[in-house]
Structures are given as structure tokens and as C-alpha cells.
Amino acid sequence: MQILRLNRRQMLAASVTSSAALCWSYRLPAAENVEPLSFIIVSDTHLGRNDNESALRNWRTAIDEINQLPGNFVLHLGDVVDSGRESQYPIYASARELLTKPIYEIPGNHDPADLFSKHVAERPDRSIDEGGVRFVLFNNARRDSHDGFITAEQHQWIARQCEEAAGENLKIVVCCHVPIHTNKHPDRAWFVKPANGQTEFYETLRRHNDRLLACFHGHFHNGIRGWRDHGSTVEVLCPSVCYNQNRGLKDRIAAGEADGFFVDELRPGFVLAELGRGRLTLRYKPIGEEENGQYAADWNGASVENANAGT
Ligand SMILES: [Zn+2]
């Protein structure tokens, strides 16, 4: 692997010229009549991790880059701070003020619900209409579990959101921190178990399959990972801005030991998403000029050549 040291301008330029190698794109017939909409997805900033400032440095670098990139708004898929550290929320808020795009966060299992409501967003369960799409955001994480939970009240609210969207001819994207999709080793095996709301959610999904384009999640720190086996809806886990871990997914999927898709890139980063004209395209953007050289690889090198996935 060739190690490169690029300044920020070069890095951003590289991201444009070689992004195809770090790009996942899927046909989404239900998005045929949606005008292209571009937005950014960040996740798992984990401010305060290891009681040092490296997570904050990553978040600030990401903000700098996001301000220079296309995208109308930013989704943050949870774990704003690490292990509920309250002192980190004002630090997050002051960095966030530097963003020149609107940002919509949901809590993760590291975010205590009361602190999230106090410092980030008063009501975590809410929806945002952008372009022809309703983004349905809700909290399915709990501090005492890595699994996800969708309550009966939330099911009713989600179903109502879907029905309203149908009435207004909007497509739907669902965002919650913990994946709903069943998974097992080499993935984390953390998800919304059938007894905790998975079954009801998929019933709603089935009723709105022509409309529900995608579910976005964080939580796994696995880069871009996902599945499309519930109708045409894609379920995608998004990378952490703070750190990602190698779960051997590239080899396991190639060997038939794991299903779904994976983009072979694990540097701390975020996602540039484009949705519309029948496609969802996700580009992995590793952040900044890396202080730690082991992350800075040649984007055109063999290590990322097989990263194209989906058609
Ligand atoms: Zn998490």
C-alpha cells in the first residue's frame, strides 16, 4: 500500500477524482421520480473518547470539509459523545456552530436521553421534509444495551409518518442509531430483535415498500455496510467520524460467510449521499490529512480497487 501525505486541498481534490473507488451505488426504482437530492451523513463522533481531544479534532476536520462539499444538510446518526460525558455536549455544540449547513442529530446508546434533549435536540423523534423525501428520525438506542428498541408508541408514530408522506406523495428515509436488520458474526449481532420491535417495523416497511427507500444507521463503526433484502428498501450502516474497526467483512463476504454489501474502507470518515433518479449513491469520504500515516493510503491502490459494490 502506497502511503501518501496530502494537504487538505489535495485530499479534497483526490476525493473527487478517485471517489468512484469508494462509492456504493444501488438502483432504487421507487426513487425514479425523485429529483436528485444530496446530503451528508456523519455518525458516531464519540466526543471525549479516551479522555482526549482526538475525536474532537476529527469532528472539526469533518466540519471544515463538509462546509466545502455539496450537500444541502447533514444527518448525524448518533453517539454524539462518548459514554454519556455531559461536559462534551457544549463542546459539540460550539463546534457544530461552525457548520454552514443545517444538521439533524439522533441519539445513540452513548447519549443519555435527557442530556441529548437538553443539549442537542429537544425531541429526538421528528421528521424533516427535504426535496421529495420525508426523513423520519427516531431514538431506538438505550444506554444499557447495544440492541435497538422500537416502542409501540413509536410504531404508531412511524406508521403515521408513512401515511402522511403517502398523502403528500413524499418518499421516506428512516434514520435510527441501531440497525433494524438481523446480523450475526462477523457483524456485531446488535439490532432490533423481533421481540423489541423488529417484526412490527418490517410490517410497516412492507406496507410502504414502494415509498420507503432506505434506512440509515450508525453504531457499528464498520464503514459502509448494509443489506437489501426487504423488498427494494436498502438498510445501510454508516461509518464513524471517530474510528472504524476491521471485522474482516471483505473476505467473509467473498467467502460466502456473510451476506449483504460492504465498501472496503475503514478510515474515519463520513458519507456524501445522493438520492434520486432511481439511484442511491454513497461516497465514502475519509477525513482530512491524517496525522497517523497508516490511514493515508493511495486511493487508486489495490486495497480499494474492489470497493465498488452494487449496481
Ligand atoms: Zn452506538
Explain this structure to me?
The chain has 311 residues and is α/β, with parallel strands linked by helices. It has a single domain, classed as Metallo-dependent phosphatases (Purple Acid Phosphatase, chain A, domain 2), CATH 3.60.21.10. 25% of the residues lie in helices and 23% in strands. It is built from 8 helices and 15 strands. The chain has a 7-stranded mixed sheet. It has a 6-stranded mixed sheet with strand order 1-15-14-2-3-4, with no helix packed on it. Strands 7-8 form a two-stranded antiparallel ribbon. Strand 14 and strand 15 form a beta hairpin. Helix 2 packs parallel to helix 3 (88-96). The model is unreliable at 1-21 and 290-311 (pLDDT under 50). The site of zinc ion has 6 residues, from loops. Residues 79, 108-110, 177, 219 line the site of zinc ion (ZN).
Topology summary:
Blueprint: H1 8-17, E1 23-27, E2 37-42, H2 54-68, E3 74-76, H3 88-96, E4 103-105, H4 113-119, E5 126-130, E6 133-137, E7 141-142, E8 145-148, H5 152-167, E9 171-175, H6 198-207, E10 212-217, E11 225-230, E12 233-237, H7 249-254, E13 261-262, E14 269-276, E15 279-286, H8 302-305
Parallel strand pairs: 2-3, 3-4, 6-9, 9-10, 10-12
Antiparallel strand pairs: 1-15, 2-14, 5-6, 7-8, 11-12, 11-13, 14-15
Helix pairs in contact: 2-3
The chain binds zinc ion (ZN).
Zinc ion is lined by residues 79, 108-110, 177, 219.
